Amino acid sequence: KVPRQELIKIQLESEIMAQSLATAVEDFHRARLRAKLEGIIARLTGRSAELLSYEEVRRQLQARERHAQRLEDIPMDAIVGSVGRYRDFTRSFLPKHASAKDRWARVEVAMTGMEGVPPIEVYKVGDAYFVRDGNHRVSVAKELGADRIQAYVTEVETRVPLTPDVEPDDLIIKAEHAEFLEQTRLDRIRPRADLRVTVPGQYQVLQE
């Protein structure tokens, strides 16, 4: 037989959990609304509201992964893409799909409660980060107002600099830049030379 005091404690914890979950669901719905607004603003301004695909960036920049990881706090604003969930969130990591509600809410309850969550895992390409594991944690952390998050970081080597303000259309020029450097090795022969161009097709002209 469970003592009365223990029953009261269990009931209280259950009520707190239910309230936390209800709050998390409300936060999710607000985030979903902002995701829709972000999409509308993107169409009006011509700027992309999409996360970048890590595999696409890695392929186009001919990047190479290192195996070593390190644990550090990374800036939230520098997270620009994902390995496998880049279609599930906006560029600001707002959830796009209503089906994510239960998982998203459970993650918020864990992050705001005593349970806590493990660090996320990311790839670092230049100064930009791509989520390997922990997309929902990033989304919730942004909703809660965090400006940094703890992550296991795997460095990815690339000859072409990548910054957090990169847009999908920028990858066309960056891919041409990467191919140009692969063929000419000018970044190693003349490391101080500024070889950036702003219009696609100019690296072929420069090489000729």
Tell me about this structure.
The chain has 208 residues and is of the alpha/beta class. Helices cover 46% and strands 19% of the residues. The chain contains 7 helices and 6 strands; from the N terminus they run H-E-H-E-E-H-E-E-H-E-H-H-H. Strands 1-3-5-4-6-2 form a 6-stranded mixed sheet. Strand 4 (120-125) and strand 5 (128-133) form a beta hairpin. Helix 3 (101-112) crosses helix 4 (135-143). The longest helix has 42 residues, at 4-45.
Rg measurement, Å: 22 Å
| Secondary structure category | alpha/beta
- Main sheet strand line-up: 1-3-5-4-6-2
- Indicate the proportion of strand residues: 15-25%
Task: Tell me the number of strands.
Answer: 6
Query: How far apart are the first and last residues' alpha carbons, in Å?
Result: 86 Å
Major sheet attributes: 6 strands, mixed
State the low-pLDDT regions, or none: none
The DSSP helix count reads: 7
Q: Sum up the overall morphology in one term.
A: elongated
Average pLDDT rating: 88
Q: How much helicity do the residues have? A: 40-55%
What is the H/E string?
Answer: HEHEEHEEHEHHH
Descriptive key words:
7 helices, alpha/beta, 208 residues, 19% strand, six-stranded mixed beta sheet
Protein topology:
Layout: H1 4-45, E1 52-53, H2 54-60, E2 64-75, E3 79-82, H3 101-112, E4 120-125, E5 128-133, H4 135-143, E6 148-157, H5 170-184, H6 186-189, H7 202-207
Summarize the structure.
With 208 residues, this protein is of the alpha/beta class.
